[in-house]
Amino acid sequence: MGQFNLREKQIEINRIDYWDVRILDLQILFFGDEVHLYIEDYDLDKHNLEECWKITFNGCSKLNYETDARERRNFKVKDFTKNQLYTCQDISLDYYDEIFTKCTIVLEGLVLLNFICKTIDIEKVSISKQEFFWSNNF
């Protein structure tokens, strides 16, 4: 992704206004080739209960992440309810080389993701058509 497209993509991500908004799911798929980040759609103190943002990072490489597992002790993320989900603190894109973009995602609770990817797609998707891990947790 060229520098010009990188700047445009960062602006597009920032328009989501994701700061301190719940992350509905983070999925690392296909042996790390794709990373899907689902962000709650939140605007003017109102939650969109029907749609959410999906950011897909394609052609990923050098995937590295840290979690808060030591601080959580015996509590497992898979047991989280929707009200316990992490919130997003930062999503930043930086130039890596002519083909790849360096991505950093910071979630509250000491979750940090660093990876490089080829392309980034952003779309709104229907929440009811997703299978989030927490959907059946009460």
How do you describe this structure in short?
The chain is mainly β and 138 residues long. The protein has helices at residues 3-14, 69-72, and strands at 23-29, 34-43, 46-58, 61-66, 88-95, 101-107, 111-117, 119-126.
Q: How many DSSP H or I helices?
A: 2
Broad structural category:
mainly beta
Encode the helix/strand succession as letters: HEEEEHEEEE
Sheet with most strands: strand arrangement: 1-2-3-8
* C-alpha Rg (nearest Å): 15 Å
Strand segment count: 8
* N-to-C CA distance: 42 Å
Strand residues, percent: over 45%
> Which stretches are poorly predicted, pLDDT < 50 over at least 5 residues?
none
Helical content band = 10-25%
Please state the overall shape, judged from the principal axes of the Cα atoms: globular
Mean pLDDT: 87
Largest beta-sheet characterization: 4 strands, antiparallel
3D architecture notes:
By secondary structure, the chain is mostly beta strands. The protein contains 2 helices and 8 strands. The strands form 2 sheets. A 4-stranded antiparallel β-sheet has the order 1-2-3-8. The protein starts with a helix and ends in a 12-residue tail after the last strand. The mean pLDDT is 87.
Core attributes:
mainly beta; four-stranded antiparallel sheet; 138 residues
Question: What is the fold's blueprint, element by element?
Answer:
Blueprint: H1 3-14, E1 23-29, E2 34-43, E3 46-58, E4 61-66, H2 69-72, E5 88-95, E6 101-107, E7 111-117, E8 119-126
Antiparallel strand pairs: 1-2, 2-3, 3-8, 4-7, 5-6, 6-7
